[in-house]
Amino acid sequence: MRAVGAPCAHIFNYQAPDLRFGPLKKALPMQYICAALYKFVELDNFEDLRQPLLDVMLAHQVKGTLLLAREGINGTICGKREEVDAVLAHLRADPRLNDVDHKESPSDEQAFYRTKVKLKKEIVTMGVDWIDPQKTVGNYVEAKDWNALISDPEVLLIDTRNDYEFAVGTFAGAINPKTDTFREFPEYVAQHLDKNKHKKVAMFCTGGIRCEKSTAYLKELGFEGVYHLKGGILKYLEEVEEANSLWQGECFVFDQRVTVKHGLEQGTYDQCYACRMPITEAEKLSPEYEKGVSCPHCHDKISDDQRARFSEREKQIQLAKARGESHIHDGKLVTAQ
Fold this sequence. Notes:
The chain is of the alpha/beta class. Helices cover 27% and strands 20% of the residues. The strands form 5 sheets. Strands 1, 2, 3, 4, 5 and 6 form a 6-stranded mixed beta sheet that branches. The chain has a 4-stranded parallel beta sheet with strand order 7-11-10-8.
């Protein structure tokens, strides 16, 4: 069993958290805890686990999305300290999940709008059904040892995340596969990697789950020296001091914080409410940026009909805010894709 703690498609299929409504309630700094978790383990009765887990989350006012599949569990939740602990205790009461690991980071506000437990075919979708991270996976590398590994000139360093995540931040020297979803990673491997040429391949992702499958995939293809950042970027940013870091930029996260920096402090990025892409303050100064309507990423991709709908939606949101009300919204949340 492989356990370590744990979030896109074409621009208009990408559904990250909707941030335009602001915090759900006033919150003191570090009042909330975000807990990212995953575990690959055989859950034959995963359908039966959904409702009891959802009931516990609702009872304790914990929000976020958890995915259940025959291959395990994956997701991120957010709530007060004691409430998050209650959900984790519920999970660990199942002998198959008693050692499920998780990674925590603080949030000044509730990071999610909704509470969801979904049943899936895969807990992270790669679309390759003949690999099993419970049996075959790459070599785990602790955060403290990561710099030494990726500084080796013989190591090929690959960012297994999606293109927009890479643009926000990555490790120095990392290769960008330029994927829109994790499903495209096997095609990248087929076109660009050679087991006879690439003797050492190191991979990383946000929390580690995508690398469980990417390293298992390479191992099954016959690659020998395959390495995996244990706990992902989040663990690295938590444990490695910025002065010694080889990380450049910020790390995209799949909640309302948008990005985090070293020490897992909230980053500087905002989000376009039309296409849900992360945007910088500089991009918000662009003439192509209109709050709730468009940004430089999507300005030339949206139709006149979409622009009109987004504009009217933003107008209604602002009117609702002026009345001190919340506007009805989709609040869709995702985990790594």
